[in-house]
Amino acid sequence: MLLSLEPRGEQSRPMLWLSPLLAAVLTLLSGSLLFALLGHDPLETLHTLLIAPLADWYGVSELLVKALPILLCALGLAVAYQARIWNIGAEGQLLLGALAGSAMALQLLDMDSRWALVWVVLAGTVAGAAWAGITAWLRTQFNANEILTSIMLNYIALNLLLFFVHGPLKDPAGFNFPESAMFGDASRLPLVSEDGRLHGGLYLALLALVAVWVLLQKSFLGFQIKVLGLDRRAAGFVGFREKRLVWFALLVSGALAGMAGVGEVAGPIGQLVPQVSPGYGYAAITVAFLGRLNPLGIVAASLLMALLYLGGENAQMTMNLPQAITQLFQGMMLFFLLACDVLILYRPRLKWKWAQRKALAEATT
Amino acid sequence: MDLDLLSNILYAMVRTGTPLLLVALGELICEKSGVLNLGQEGMMLFGAVIGFIVALATGNLWLGVLLAMAAGMLLSMLFAAVALGFNANQVATGLALTIFGVGLSTFVGAAWVGKPLSGFEPIAIPLLSEIPLIGRMLFAQDVLIYLSFALFALVAWVLLKSRIGLIIQAVGESPDAASAMGLPVLRVRTLAVLFGGAMAGLAGGYLSLAYTPMWAENMTAGRGWIALALVVFASWRVFRVLLGAYLFGLASILHLVAQGIGLSIPSNLLAMLPYVATIVVLVLLSRDAIKTRLYAPVSLGQPWQPGH
């Protein structure tokens, strides 16, 4: 028996959307197998991981709290990836957004007006964009590979944040703990409802969702970005300015990641701490691909990813499983997705030896 | 600066540069065959954690090294299956491999964080190690570093002098022509990817068994990515890989040097140095787009299937 791939000659539309679902199912199956091997009941573990966290409204609101930064980062990444600009730096852009937002909030501790929040969010967003701007500058000016520069900037951003939280931004009255003072109420994102931690970042994310949807699906700029991604030379021939598009895609990408970061510190955390993000910026890479770089697909994928984060915490508390399950599933899912994507362009054919022989016999007679 | 300090710096430079050298040699072969595997960081981490667990559980360091290499190869097999077998985008597949490797290693190693292990000790070769300045650097290292010297010689010989090297480069420069000559393009590429996996696993094992004998989450700290930049820096030439690896090693230990001469700079800022250096080097070397394109293997990163 032999599995062979036959080119379809065109993209299969149904497979384009079935492939992420297939990848999710395969991830769950291999996850179950892994749990069984580790001596846990697979069904019970999956229940702990995926269903138990959503038992009540608090669970659902926690899901949204975790989905917001992932969604924002992934929306930004989708813009860059549509142009085939591999921005891997969402994590660093997020951290810088958190850092700059915190620095602003700590300046405005005594301010009572709501403008404080505006300044804080703006500072974070601009800082995220600026951090991505470094990658854009290096890429357009010096032709430096954006994958490597954006990854390096992630490590630099993390160290920068650690430096500030251990040094200049440390709370003087904080018993030498590496954390800043709590922000003033005026610079915090308001809660959406009384119970739970869901905060005004929700509106920012919805706004970003609509904006990115319009940009990618309805605007000429989005069209240019997609053409650039599909065929660099063609984009050049019709006169689209590559450098300008690269700048634009990366700035949007960084601004949204920065917004995600400032949303975390001004939202659920309320101060600058060393651990702003449990890898949201990296998770967003998987989410962007899983959502097919489509804003609505990304919403679904970021909810799924947030559920994995929530479930990972739950599994650690109740079953003593390492929380790294979340990252493990992330990686598996992306891998399965890429493997399943082969079905978009190719049709799998099972070939039995006898079938070949029969075909050969028919052909010769 | 006195001679003793300088000799110490050179010694530490080689120690720090070795994991970079090992990964970069593997990736060099891989890229020469036309495959861009961005999963180095993931393979390194998995190698590091498996090597550590095996060595701690069995008490046999060499078994740890061997299985670290096997672990790296196992992950690279996944990459080969998806990127070469299924023709997937190599950039995305490599990223997936890194994300997967980070998750897998953290998951597997959760129970082993912070456990002590007595790793490989330096072995000073009599007489030779007493040569001033370079004696310690070259002849008082641990056995994995001596192994890295040998592996460097092997890779250099393969690429510059052997038939296998010609085959790898033919496949990387023009898979169509190589295929027309009857070379099994996909098999050559798969083997190159597996070699890269073994080297990344070995580099991970070096970190967790010799450099700092312990396991910590994400202990590679971006070395897999730096090694990728290193190959670009070296413009795909093997001697420059060696030079680059040690230069980056030097950049990573500058904080020791700074302490040695009495500068006080916060450690978090000094920790940025290797990453900043990577960016600077990338900028300096990629400035000339045409030159980069001339040095890079022509089919680098492009999927290829027979008969298309």
Describe what you observe in this structure:
- The complex is a heterodimer of chains A (365) and B (308).
- Chain A has helices at residues 13-37, 42-51, 57-82, 90-107, 115-142, 146-166, 201-218, 220-230, 232-237, 242-269, 280-290, 295-319, 325-340, 342-345, 353-364; strands at residues 2-7, 346-351.
- With 365 residues, chain A is mainly α.
- Chain A has two domains: 1-40 and 327-365, no CATH class; 66-320, ABC transporter involved in vitamin B12 uptake, BtuC, CATH 1.10.3470.
- In chain A, 71% of the residues lie in helices and 3% in strands.
- Helix content of chain B is 72%, strand content 0%.
- Chain B contains 15 helices and no strands.
- Chain B has helices spanning 3-32, 40-58, 61-85, 90-109, 134-139, 143-161, 163-173, 175-180, 185-211, 223-233, 238-252, 254-260, 267-271, 273-286, 289-295.
- In chain B, helix 1 (3-32) runs antiparallel to helix 9, helix 3 (61-85) runs antiparallel to helix 9 (185-211) and helix 11 (238-252) runs antiparallel to helix 14 (273-286).
- Chain B is globular, with a radius of gyration of 19 Å.
- The mean pLDDT of chain B is 88.
- Classes of the chains: A mainly alpha (365), B mainly alpha (308).
- At the A-B interface, helix 6, helix 11 and helix 13 of A face helix 3, helix 4, helix 10, helix 13 and helix 14 of B.
- Chain A: This is Simple sugar transport system permease protein.
- Chain A: The chain crosses the membrane at residues 16-37, 57-80, 92-109, 115-138, 150-169, 198-216, 245-262, 282-312, 324-346.
- Chain A: It comes from Pseudomonas cuatrocienegasensis.
